[in-house]
Write a structure and sequence with these properties.
Number of helices of chain B: 11
Number of helices of chain A: 3
Strand order of the largest sheet of chain B: 1-2
Order of helices and strands of chain B: HHHHHHHHHEEHH
Bound molecules: fe (ii) ion
CATH class of one domain in chain A: Alpha Beta
Structural class of chain B: mainly alpha
CATH superfamily of chain B: Ferritin, core subunit, four-helix bundle
Oligomer: heterodimer
Shape of chain B: globular
Radius of gyration of chain B: 20 Å
Strand content of chain B: under 5%
Strand order of the largest sheet of chain A: 2-1-3
Largest sheet of chain A: 3 strands, antiparallel
CATH topology of chain B: Ferritin
Shape of chain A: elongated
CATH class of chain B: Mainly Alpha
Number of strands of chain B: 2
Number of strands of chain A: 3
Distance between the termini of chain A: 108 Å
Largest interface: A-B, 44 and 51 residues
Radius of gyration of chain A: 30 Å
Strand content of chain A: 15-25%
CATH architecture of one domain in chain A: Roll
CATH superfamily of one domain in chain A: Phenylacetic acid degradation B
Helix content of chain A: 10-25%
Distance between the termini of chain B: 21 Å
């Protein structure tokens, strides 16, 4: 028995109505790439998601369809997921010292108090 | 679209006992504080399992959901509508891609998900087991099924799993075009000739029961989902989403002078809730388990697409490559 559909194209395909269980194989969807999108020249590239592709050229092609189909895009990067190295959220504490190192921050330098004090002292004299 | 009325696996009570209680508590605190869970974070096995199930069903619903409308591309009335329908169908297939990636971050490879779909092991939204008999059916689908999907997806985009939320934000942007496009098509028919009005009325009569099924079984009979709600996997109860849908769209259907095939449907002004004839949940179960008008066709078409693409996948396959789980 083949499938009868309201769509004549499907009926013409004479699809069997039982599964012959021919599963797709490992890696048949290829490896994954991460996609970075730039919406305007001068802006930074922003990570927008990932996709499957057999090579970088195809990844660009698919990224254009998947992530740049709408809204402005001037440039795309794709990077193989396996080439991305990542810090561990469990090691988040390694960034914690940042706040203590105020000598590296613009906000760590407050001079107005001293200047004002200096000015009032000099007016007196 | 799509994907309301997910089928969650019934969880055995006390599954959390096997989990590390300290980690579990921290995990639940993070979710309660509105933080997002990322793929590399610790998560309970049950959370991972139910999320894979839900996101996978959602992805399948997008890819299968493109089929009923897709059959009308070659027969669309006019070039502009053909272009618009092609764009919508492409969007839906793109949604599937985004969602498969999100599900993969939880550890299930895409090939396995596709195999589970084409062998009938995993489910997709039940509404797509019904046929699009005329062009008007595609209009009703694009308007009302997508409307239902938007309610569901907007709710889910505020869930706890980062990759799923980010995919949904992108998807929701595109859905607004689907909704407008569908509404435009319905309005065109409903304000057209008497034959066009009849077409869209008939389509509405055919699609009303599946639409009422869309958000899944009534809260009275659906499995317990408190844990899933606390974990922000499920964001609203089936009945609440159905009420929201009725609130937003019944007036818009009525203003076109169309008849909804449910004599009991009315808003109770005291409770603020819609009253309706209880949908036929036996039919829902029967269809979702394979016995609907189009189940076999949908899977056969999907299977044929995989078979026909196999030589391309083989030609481009590099055996030296290794699969890497996508980042987010
Ligand atoms: Fe969609
Ligand atoms: Fe849609």
């Amino acid at each position: 028995m083949s499938i009868k559909s309201l769509d004549p194209r499907i009926t013409r395909e004479q699809l069997p109505d039982e599964s012959d269980n021919n599963p797709i194989k490992e890696l048949h969807q290829w490896q994954t790439y991460e996609v970075f999108h730039q919406s305007k020249k001068g802006d930074r590239h922003i990570h927008v998601g990932s996709l499957h592709a057999p090579n970088a050229e195809m990844a660009i092609l698919l990224a254009k369809e998947q992530y740049a189909r709408r809204y402005k895009c001037v440039n795309l990067w794709v990077v193989k997921t396996s080439d991305v190295f990542i810090t561990d959220y469990d090691d988040e504490d390694m960034f914690e010292a940042n706040q203590e190192k105020m000598y590296r921050e613009a906000g760590g330098y407050k001079v107005m108090d001293r200047i004002n004090k200096f000015k009032t002292e000099h007016k007196k004299n | 679209m799509y994907g309301g009325g997910y089928i969650f696996e019934e969880s055995k009570n006390g599954h959390s006992e096997e989990e590390d209680q300290i980690k579990l508590q921290k995990f639940e605190e993070r979710i309660a504080a509105g933080e997002k869970i990322e793929p590399s974070d610790w998560m309970p096995a049950e959370y991972r399992k139910q999320l894979i199930r839900m996101i996978e069903q959602h992805a399948h619903s997008e890819i299968i959901g493109a089929l009923p409308e897709g059959t009308w591309i070659t027969r669309a009335p006019g070039f502009r509508r053909k272009l618009a329908l092609m764009a919508k169908v492409q969007d839906e297939v793109g949604h599937a891609q985004l969602l498969y990636s999100a599900a993969e971050t939880l550890g299930k490879p895409r090939e396995q998900m596709i195999n589970d779909l084409i062998t009938g092991k995993s489910k997709y939204s039940n509404v797509f087991n019904y046929p699009a008999v005329t062009w008007a059916d595609t209009a009703v689908i694009a308007w009302l099924i997508d409307a239902g999907a938007i309610i569901n997806q907007v709710a889910n985009s505020k869930g706890s799993y980062g990759p799923y939320c980010r995919a949904l934000e992108r998807i929701c942007l595109e859905e607004s075009f689907h909704l407008k496009y569908g509404h435009d098509n319905v309005v065109f028919l409903a304000t057209g000739t008497s034959q066009q009005r009849q077409m869209v009325q008939d389509a509405l009569i055919r699609w009303w029961p599946p639409i009422m099924h869309f958000f899944g079984p009534s809260d009275k009979i659906s499995v317990h989902t408190e844990t899933l709600m606390r974990w922000k996997v499920k964001m609203a109860s089936n009945d609440d989403m159905r009420q929201k849908f009725l609130d937003m769209y019944v007036p818009k259907i009525w203003e076109l002078g169309l008849t909804i095939p449910d004599p009991k449907l009315k808003k109770n002004n005291e409770t603020g809730k819609w009253e309706y004839t209880e949908p036929d949940w036996e039919e829902f179960k029967r269809v979702i388990n394979g016995d609907g008008p189009c189940n076999k066709e949908r899977l056969a078409v999907r299977r044929r697409a995989e078979e026909k693409g196999e030589w391309v996948r083989n030609a481009l396959l590099r055996p030296s490559e290794k699969y890497t789980v996508p980042l987010s």
